[in-house]
Amino acid sequence: MPVSSQPLTGGESENWWKESVFYQIYMPSFQDSDGNGISDFTGMTSRLDYLQSLGIKGIWLTPFLKSPKVDNGYDVAGYTEIDPVYGTPDDFKNFLNEAHRRDIKVIMDMVVNHTSTESRWFQESRKSRDQPYRDYYIWRDQPNNWESFFGGKAWEYDSLTAQYYYHKFDVRMADLNWSNPRVVEEIQNVLRYWLELGVDGFRMDVINFLTTDGILSDNPVKDGSQQHIYDIDQPGVMEAMRVIKATVNEYDNRFVVGEIGSDKLEILSQYQSPELMDVVFNFNFGSIPEFSAERIFNELQSMEKRMPGYPTLFFGSHDMPRLIDRLADGDPGRAKALAALMLTAKGVPFIYYGEETGMQNIVAETMNEMVDIQGKTHYQLALAAGKTPMEALSEANRHNRDKSRSPMQWDGSVHAGFTTGKPWIKIHDNYLKVNLEQSLAFTGSITNTYKALITLRNKEKTLQVGSYENLELKDAQIQFTRVYKDDQITVIINFGNDSTIVLPAGSEVLMGNPALKTNDFLIFRHSSGTKR
């Protein structure tokens, strides 16, 4: 049943997402309003003016549906129920309406690979082998050798019916059986429910992990590591994505971004098209483990040559260490240069909350402070391998995703944004030396640099949708020219030594200075008909 959303307004285009800078909000950590130590929709609504002033046009919300939060919401127990810790349905509707009133779109994280074992579907499924919900999940008398993404086996024995169920992630997160048409219909109806409410699209979690073709052969093992040949990218995954995208397309002007669990561009590119995912996250670019101008350039070049359509650009997310620590080595100048790259290169930029202030990682000093299931799992695996508790804690912290999930630092207080109660995660008094209030007051701060760059991008169509005229790396300077119709804008990001750029006659400097120091950048418009 085709359904239309509200008509486009204000010159809005079908591909509005190409023109937008997105801001990822990690739900528990943005702004609390009721003192329970967890961010909520009322608190988040109170911060929309800030996001509007920053120039944000799209918000990505991590999961906020009913969940026991084994994996902080990625274990969904109720697909059409808002978790009470985040507020009421009316609170969500008000947040959505207030965002739209400020011309900010909202996409929500949707997890359709698995549900919580506390889901009604799973609770019904495990009651008996002939239960109507049994085939919503994957049950077997004997498991194969597939492993969990979090470590260990991907199968759990349930004595109630004397069978094993499949869980690609935690044992409390059971995989849905996408070869069952009833599951497909259920998920289609879930998507329609939220689209009817007015959400502007979805970020589809681990979408190429869907078990569409059942349990296939054992995965081969090479050098002691399992090769994920049969449990990921099954033959039916593309058809499942087509169904998802077709369902979303019943509503006008919506957007779907896919999280694809692969580091191979030839696989990522298969899933990005108008019939599948509008864009996919490329973690080869986004999760580079340490700074390298050459590596960043090579990834930009690879995306341009080997991926169709429009790429995504990001240096942070809830699953990786923060930009300032991982890539900038604590240097605000390099953080600003990386921001300039992300906000002017060809692609859809995604800013991770707090990145624009220079927020840093946190470290768990004891296991009692650790919340992340991935970190906890690696702690237990390390102990089982004979490591001491201190060695296991170190191993856990390497895998612990809490490091980038701490509360937004709105001001200089330790529990900023959570002033009526301590936040859901342990924060030490020496946690951060920077905050938004302080950063906004300093003209040359990371925050004000982000703000100026986003303002420029929002103004210049060429920086939103322009193609590359060139893309090159010279002496640790990443350079490119974006072209749209007769307009040309060149960007130079200098990660090398000091240098002075000789501008073509008639050029207009949009941001920066031709006298480039290390970690400076320059953005300028060419005069008509002039190419650099």
Explained architecture:
The chain is of the alpha/beta class and 532 residues long. The longest helix is centred in the middle third of the chain and has 17 residues, at 181-197. β12 and β13 (225-226) form a beta hairpin. It has 16 helices and 24 strands. Among the domains are: 361-431, no CATH class; 467-525, Immunoglobulin-like (Sandwich). The chain has helices spanning 41-45, 48-54, 89-101, 120-125, 181-197, 237-248, 265-270, 283-286, 293-306, 323-326, 332-344, 373-384, 389-399, 436-440, 446-459, 461-465; strands at 22-25, 58-61, 65-66, 78-82, 105-110, 114-116, 139-140, 155-158, 163-166, 173-175, 201-204, 221-222, 225-226, 255-258, 279-280, 312-313, 348-352, 467-474, 477-484, 487-494, 499-500, 508-512, 515-516, 520-525. The chain is globular, with a radius of gyration of 23 Å. 28% of the residues lie in helices and 18% in strands. The strands form seven sheets. An eight-stranded parallel sheet has the order 15-14-11-5-2-1-17-16, covered by helices on one side. A five-stranded antiparallel sheet has the order 18-19-20-24-22. It has a three-stranded antiparallel sheet with strand order 7-9-8, with no helix packed on it. The N and C termini lie far apart (52 Å).
